[in-house]
């Protein structure tokens, strides 16, 4: 997923929960953690392939 796609996805989610401030922070944190995990997993997969 490109960074533009990530930003678009984040914006979409954030606009859906705009009315609930704590929810917005929570979801952004979840999204950030998911990307972090997916990056780590991708790196691990690359190690396995080598």
Describe this structure in words.
With 50 residues, the chain is mainly α. It has one domain (3-49). The chain is 86% helix and 0% strand. The chain is built from two helices and no strands. It has helices spanning 3-16, 21-49. The longest helix is centred in the C-terminal third of the chain and has 29 residues, at 21-49. It is elongated and about 45 Å long.
Count every beta strand, where a strand is a DSSP E run of 2 or more residues.
0
Q: Whole-Å distance between the termini?
A: 23 Å
Radius of gyration: 14 Å
Write the H/E string, N to C.
HH
Average of per-residue pLDDT values: 82
Largest sheet: none
What shape does the CA trace take?
elongated
Beta-strand content: under 5%
Structural class by sheet pairing and helices:
mainly alpha
Give the fraction of residues assigned to helices: over 70%
Question: Total number of helical segments?
Answer: 2
Number of domains: 1
- Poorly predicted regions: none
List keywords for this structure.
single chain; 50 residues; mainly alpha; 2 helices; 86% helix
Give a brief description.
By secondary structure, the chain is mostly helical. The protein is 86% helix and 0% strand.
């Amino acid at each position: 997923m490109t960074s533009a796609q990530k930003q678009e996805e984040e914006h979409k989610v954030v606009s859906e929960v705009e009315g609930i401030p704590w929810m917005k922070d929570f979801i952004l944190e979840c999204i950030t953690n998911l990307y972090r995990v997916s990056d780590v997993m991708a790196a691990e997969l690359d190690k396995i392939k080598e």
